[in-house]
Write a structure and sequence with these properties.
alpha+beta; four-stranded antiparallel beta sheet; 4 helices; 4 strands
C-alpha cells in the first residue's frame, strides 16, 4: 500500500472548524471510537482532550493505521510510533506535509535541543515554507487554549516526527520564503 501525504492532510483539512461548542467535534471522536481494537481498550468521551484522537481519526479515515497507530494519548502515540520505527527525532530533520508534530508546553530546552519531556499536544503538518510550519490541530482555538471552545484549526509552529509516505505526492515545501515563527 502506498501512503500519500496529501490524503491525510486533506482529511485533516476537512475537519477544520469542528468544535466542542456545537458538538461537531463528536464526529471525530466517533470515528476514533468506531475503530477496534481501541488503544488500551479506552473509549474516548466527548469531554476528553482530543488532539491525539483527531490525528488518529485522520489515520483511521485514510487507512493509515499501520504507520500512524490509533491512540488517544500523545505520550502513548509516540511509544507506538517508536515501536513500529516511524519515529524521527533529530535536530536536522526538516518536516514535510503529512508529518505528525508533537509539542511539550513545558519544554525548557527551546528549539535548539531535542525535547525529552512529556508531549502535551499533537497535530498534522499541512505545509512548510522556509522555517514556517503550518499545522492542523484538533482541540485548539484561534487564541490557543485561552477559551473553552476547542476547535480544529490551522496554526503555525515547528516540529519533530516523520512517517512512511511515498514521495510521489509530496505537495509541501516551498522553501523560497524565509520567515521565522516560534
Amino acid at each position: 500500500m502506498s501512503y500519500l501525504r496529501s490524503k491525510i492532510v486533506e482529511q485533516a483539512k476537512s475537519w477544520i472548524g469542528c468544535k466542542e461548542s456545537d458538538g461537531s467535534h463528536k464526529a471525530i471522536i466517533d470515528v476514533y471510537n468506531s475503530y477496534t481494537p481501541r488503544a488500551r481498550g479506552y473509549k474516548v468521551q466527548y469531554t476528553d482532550k482530543w488532539c491525539a484522537t483527531f490525528v488518529s481519526a485522520c489515520s483511521i479515515k485514510c487507512g493509515y493505521t499501520d504507520i500512524i497507530p490509533p491512540e488517544c494519548s500523545c505520550k502513548e502515540m509516540i511509544t507506538l510510533l517508536k515501536n513500529i520505527n516511524e519515529w524521527e527525532e533529530s535536530d536536522s530533520y526538516t518536516p514535510s506535509s503529512g508529518d505528525i508534530i508533537f509539542y511539550d508546553w513545558d519544554d525548557t530546552t527551546g528549539s535548539t535541543k531535542d525535547n525529552t519531556g512529556t508531549p502535551d499536544h499533537v497535530g498534522i503538518v499541512e505545509k512548510v515554507s522556509g522555517t514556517t510550519i503550518t499545522v492542523i490541530e484538533g482541540m485548539l482555538n484561534d487564541d490557543g487554549y485561552s477559551k473553552a471552545d476547542f476547535i480544529v484549526v490551522e496554526v503555525i509552529d515547528y516540529t519533530i516526527d516523520a512517517t512512511s509516505y511515498t514521495d510521489e505526492d509530496d505537495t509541501t515545501d516551498d522553501t523560497s520564503e524565509e520567515t521565522t515563527e516560534g
